[in-house]
Design a protein that fits this description.
The chain is of the alpha/beta class. The protein has a single domain, classed as Rossmann fold, CATH 3.40.50.10420. The protein is built from four helices and twelve strands, in the order H-H-E-H-E-E-E-E-E-E-E-E-H-E-E-E. The strands form three sheets. An eight-stranded mixed beta sheet has the order 6-3-2-1-7-10-11-12, with helices on both faces. Strands 4-5 form a two-stranded antiparallel ribbon.
Length: 184
C-alpha cells in the first residue's frame, strides 16, 4: 500500500470517528479553546468556519481579544491567505464551500486554530489532503514564530498519523477533554 493509499484509508476512518463525536457533541465542547486563546490576546488569530462535522471554534474566535482572520483558498498548491473576520461579517461561499468574508483586509496570523480529521500525541494531524495548512505553516514559520493549535474532538485521536516530510506539526492540541503540547 502506498502512503497516499494509507492516508486515504486513514481519512475514511477518521471521518467516521469525527461524525460520531459530532453527533454526541455538547454546547460546552469548545470552552477550553477560549481559555487557551486568552493567553494570545492581542495577537492576530486565524480560525476557520466550521464545515460538516468539524468542531465549532466560532465562539472562541468571537471572544478573541485581537484581530481574527479566516482562511481563503486562492488556488490549488498555494498557501492559504487570511481575510479579517468579525461576528456579523457578510460571508460568501469560497472554494470547497467554506464560508469566507465578502470583503476585508488580509491579515497574517501569529496563532492558527487548525481543523483536522485525526491527530496523534506527536502533534501531527491528518487533514483533507490538499496540503493547504502545511504550506501555510511552513511559510509563516519561515518568517517568524507562529503557534498552530489543533482543535478537535478527543475521539479524533489516533495512535499514529501517517506522515510525510512536508507535514507540519502542531504546537498544541485542544479537545473538549484536555489541552496538551505534543511529545516529539
Amino acid at each position: 500500500m502506498t502512503l497516499t493509499e494509507i492516508k486515504q484509508a486513514a481519512r475514511t476512518e477518521a471521518f467516521a470517528r469525527r461524525k460520531a463525536a459530532f453527533a454526541a457533541r455538547r454546547p460546552e465542547d469548545g470552552a477550553r479553546l477560549i481559555g487557551v486563546l486568552a493567553e494570545h490576546t492581542g495577537k492576530t488569530l486565524a480560525g476557520y468556519m466550521p464545515m460538516r462535522t468539524e468542531i465549532d471554534c466560532l465562539p472562541a474566535m468571537a471572544a478573541h481579544g485581537g484581530p481574527v482572520g479566516v482562511p481563503v483558498i486562492l488556488g490549488a498548491g498555494t498557501p492559504l491567505k487570511f481575510r479579517e473576520w468579525h461576528p456579523g461579517a457578510i460571508m460568501v461561499a469560497g472554494e470547497f464551500g467554506a464560508l469566507i468574508p465578502e470583503s476585508g483586509d488580509w491579515v497574517e496570523p501569529q496563532v492558527l486554530v487548525v481543523p483536522l480529521l485525526a491527530f496523534d500525541r506527536r502533534g501531527f494531524r491528518l487533514g483533507y489532503g490538499g496540503g493547504f495548512y502545511d504550506r501555510t505553516l511552513e511559510g509563516l514559520r519561515a518568517r517568524g514564530p507562529v503557534t498552530a493549535i489543533g482543535f478537535a474532538f478527543a475521539a479524533q485521536e489516533v495512535a499514529e498519523v501517517p506522515i510525510e516530510p512536508t507535514d507540519q506539526p502542531l504546537d498544541l492540541i485542544v479537545t473538549e477533554a484536555e489541552v496538551f503540547a505534543p511529545v516529539r
